[in-house]
């Protein structure tokens, strides 16, 4: 009989795109909603509110993409440099590297003889991969992917930013602050719930955390808009 290997699927396999997606959507909702609320609190025109929101959407999406790409590229460059150094050390001093791997497994609880056997077998199978995983902590799940992070952040920011912008477009000028604030908070709570489900985390904690900071940001910009709007008269 042929036995098929079955591998467990863990939530950490989603961590690469999930972090960028949640960050992008959260920033899109919070920053655009805060911008709209701040401008609306200054008692400006409906057109100015929408133009400000649209400008915030475009600028924010591009900024998120650039920021994620640059930061994750820096991580990828560091990983590549460490791997090149490890490759050189394996070529010039394989005995030391083997002993280093053995000591890692001993520290994790294996007996010295067993640790030596494991180190030998893994070195024979994939020396660089073994050191990358067990010495440097680099693996496929957590490996830096700049382009993936940039695209995920840009798209999710734009989607998140579009929500308060659409609410503002459909609201009367006198109700923009209230409707955008409430709708954005609802979207933030929903985002927290979805991210918690995708990551296997606490739904309540995620929803409260994301809604608290969103409320704080909108309240701060509303206060600024009200102060400067009132002082302009």
Describe the structure.
The structure is a single chain. With 233 residues, the protein is an all-alpha fold. The protein has a domain at 15-77 and 142-231. Helix content is 81%, strand content 0%. It has seven helices and no strands. α1 packs parallel to α7 (203-231), α2 packs across α4 and α6 (176-199) packs antiparallel against α7 (203-231). The N and C termini lie far apart (84 Å). Residues 1-5 and 10-14 have low confidence and may be disordered.
Please tag this protein with its features:
disordered N terminus, mainly alpha, 233 residues, single chain
Shape: elongated
Strand content: under 5%
- Kindly report how far apart the N and C termini lie: 84 Å
Judged by helices, strands and strand pairing, the structural class is mainly alpha
Order of helices and strands: HHHHHHH
Helix content: over 70%
Outline:
The protein is mainly alpha-helical and 233 residues long. The protein is elongated, with a radius of gyration of 25 Å. The N terminus is likely disordered.
Topology diagram in text:
Elements (H helix, E strand, L loop, with lengths): L14 H27 L4 H47 L1 H14 L4 H23 L11 H25 L5 H24 L3 H29 L2
